[in-house]
């Protein structure tokens, strides 16, 4: 009974880590990455469609992204979606493909991005701690209902804390890697 609480809590913590990785992958680091365009939606045939479902996104050089639409009639919509995104990029359209040169980041912009990454990581740490709190409350409820013993509640609470510490540590490592990536020239 109480192990279900720990398993469910750990699943939620894993989802929080996955969410952090996904959100940090969208932060621009000064190097071209196809993942930068994962959140961009294109108006294709009257429906908002993810860019990677309307075109091939490739990175032939460190600072260049090439987007080749499968349907050439969508090239204007793809260009418009990129321009209106929060990436602040300037796509060049030659009628067949869209080329996007990724400009190097300024020192000030790098600091802003690191600050943004830290904020996202902190939100995940808070979420993980909230998951621990929910798990502990559930364990106390099971104890009160007589479904587990005090020893089980104490042991499981300690196990939940260990898992929390582990996921907080993972969050910190992910943040440090992203910080290093952003600050590299």
Key phrases:
four-stranded antiparallel beta sheet; 185 residues; alpha+beta; 6 strands; two-stranded antiparallel sheet
Short précis:
The protein has helices at 2-25, 75-83, 107-144, 150-183; strands at 41-44, 47-50, 55-61, 64-69, 92-93, 98-101.
Q: What would your notes on this structure say?
A:
With 185 residues, the chain is of the alpha+beta class. Helices cover 57% and strands 15% of the residues. It is built from four helices and six strands. A four-stranded antiparallel sheet has the order 3-4-6-5, with helices on one face. The protein has a two-stranded antiparallel sheet with strand order 1-2. A hairpin with a 2-residue loop joins strand 1 and strand 2. The longest helix is centred in the last third of the chain and has 38 residues. The termini are far apart.
Radius of gyration from CA coordinates: 22 Å
Termini Cα gap: 52 Å
Question: Helix segment count?
Answer: 4
Mean pLDDT: 89
Beta-strand level of the residues, as a percent range? Answer: 5-15%
Q: Which stretches are poorly predicted, pLDDT < 50 over at least 5 residues? A: none
**DSSP helix fraction:** 55-70%
List strands and helices in order, with pairings:
Layout: H1 2-25, E1 41-44, E2 47-50, E3 55-61, E4 64-69, H2 75-83, E5 92-93, E6 98-101, H3 107-144, H4 150-183
Antiparallel strand pairs: 1-2, 3-4, 4-6, 5-6
Helix pairs in contact: 1-3, 1-4, 3-4
């Amino acid at each position: 009974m109480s192990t279900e609480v720990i398993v469910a809590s750990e699943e939620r913590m894993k989802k929080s880590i996955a969410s952090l990785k996904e959100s940090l992958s969208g932060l621009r680091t000064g190097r071209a990455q196809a993942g930068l365009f994962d959140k961009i939606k294109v108006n294709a045939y009257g429906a908002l469609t993810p860019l990677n479902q309307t075109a091939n996104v490739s990175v032939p050089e460190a600072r260049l992204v090439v987007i080749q639409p499968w349907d050439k009639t969508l090239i204007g919509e793809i260009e418009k979606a990129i321009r209106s995104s929060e990436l602040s990029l300037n796509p060049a359209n030659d009628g067949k493909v869209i080329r996007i040169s990724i400009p190097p980041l300024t020192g000030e912009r790098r600091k802003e991005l690191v600050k943004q990454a830290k904020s996202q990581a902190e939100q995940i740490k808070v979420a993980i701690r909230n998951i621990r709190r929910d798990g502990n409350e559930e364990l106390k409820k099971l104890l009160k209902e007589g479904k587990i013993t005090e020893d089980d509640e104490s042991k499981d609470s300690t196990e939940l804390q260990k898992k929390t510490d582990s996921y907080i540590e993972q969050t910190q490592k992910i943040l440090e890697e992203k910080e290093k990536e952003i600050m590299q020239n």
